[in-house]
Amino acid sequence: MSGELTVSDIKNLPADSYMLIDIRDEYAFTAGHIDGSVNIPQSSLCKVELPRDKKLIICCKSGIISRDTADELCEDGFDAYNLAGGYCDWLRAKLENSLIAENVEKSIRKKFHKTLLSKFTRAITEYKLINPDDKIAVCISGGKDSMLMAKLFQEIKQHGKFPFELVFLVMDPGYSPENRSIIEKNAEALGIPVTIFETNIFESVYNVKNNPCYLCARMRRGHLYNKAKELGCNKIALGHHFDDVIETILMGMIYGGQVQTMMPKLHSANFEGMELIRPMYLIREADIKRWRDYNDLHFIQCACKFTDTCTTCTPTNTGSKRQEIKQLIAELKKRNPQIEMNIFRSVENVNLRTIISYKDSAGEHSFLDGYEGDKEGEEI
After folding, report:
1. Span 282-328, pLDDT tens digits
2. CA 194 – CA 333 distance, rounded (Å)
3. Looking at the chain, which residues constitute the CATH 3.40.250.10 domain(s)?
4. Which residues contact residue 106 at a Cβ distance below 8 angstroms, ignoring those fewer than 6 apart?
5. CATH 3.40.50.620 domain span(s) along the chain
6. pLDDT, position 311
7. N or C terminus of the chain: which is more exposed, having fewer CB within 10 Å?
8. pTM of the predicted model as reported, rounded to 2 decimal places
9. Spatial distance between the Cα atoms of 41 and 23, rounded to a whole number of angstroms
10. 101-313, CATH topology level
11. Across residues 206-220, what is the average pLDDT?
């Protein structure tokens, strides 16, 4: 049986006496990891030559899966230990007594003004996302996108041209205690006064085999609308960014056989008087990551309490269509640096005369409808 070490224990060890191995997948490791740790996914451990003259400290998200891995390494003769509490405990310790809000706000106003704040205000202006006296529920999931959105909203409210109200809304769909704690501590450290309410969505979708993440997202959206309306809000704001938009365009074409996009704002069909807005519509994900890393911030990758065992949440799962599209765009960008903007502009520059058919509120229309009366031909 392996022993257990805590984050505090590691601090007291000589740096050359141990190897800290993070066995989560590459995507989770990239989203956030313990300083100095090495990423060797659990499935690859048997293929790697590990040192026998050092302590091997095994880390996963919450110290559950890593315990079994450490036991197996001990049976193979290694001096292995489980990191109690895993990455989540390290992250909580890092956030203790952290006063980072001031530096984060300064970075938004100065270093990231052009890439984040300017694009945020541009989207709000260009798509008319906010009106005087709006009351907006800023929906926070706990990830980097929604936390940044909250800080950007605080910034424009402080220096805005007209009055509006904000409610920073966190829905707990059944978070693990570790994830709930990280969200709360991040919000506290960043100076975001969150309002939290509970639901049991995760339990409801746990045994769903087909598209559980899609069903979860739909249920969460409904609960957010309902709670926001209860609090007197007329809008909910979601943290979807530029990359989400262009990925949605390609997904619709390749997997859905349709041309559509993620709209910057939408009226709710089920909650009268409510509207959804996406003020991060023009912000690139790479710039969000730069902001996060510059401020040494650490957010949860996925709030689902089953993430440790849920394959549908990982990019290695072949069923992840969005991840496939993300990788496709990355490959295309190597050949054409303008590919992302071209995809985005493709749904701004639609010429109905070159479309076979299209739909609107009046029904479906075909190019044949007015073809005989249209004498404008092809230019040669």
Report:
1. 999 999 999 999 999 988 776 554 444 343 344 344 347 888 999 99
2. 38
3. 3-95
4. none
5. 101-313
6. 35
7. C
8. 0.75
9. 4
10. Rossmann fold (3.40.50)
11. 76
For residue 7, pLDDT over 70 is answered with yes
136-164 burial code (b ≥16 CB/10 A, e <16): bbbbbbbbbbbbbbbbbbbbbeeeeeeeb
Locate 334 and state its tokens: 């190597």
Going by C-alpha positions, the residue among 324, 340, 138, 332 that lies closest to residue 243 is: 340
pLDDT of 303 reads: 57
d(CA 367, CA 293): 50
Distances (CA, A) of 167 to 153, 230, 299: 10, 12, 20
Residue that has been written with the tokens 């290694």 in this structure:
78
pLDDT digits (tens, 9 = 90+) for 137-152: 999 999 999 999 999 9
Question: Does the pLDDT value for residue 85 go beyond 50?
Answer: yes
| Rounded percentage of the chain residues whose pLDDT exceeds 70 | 92
d(CA 187, CA 164): 21
DSSP 113: I
Say which amino acid occupies 229: K
Residue-wise pLDDT for 162-183, tens only, equals 899 999 999 988 888 888 888 9
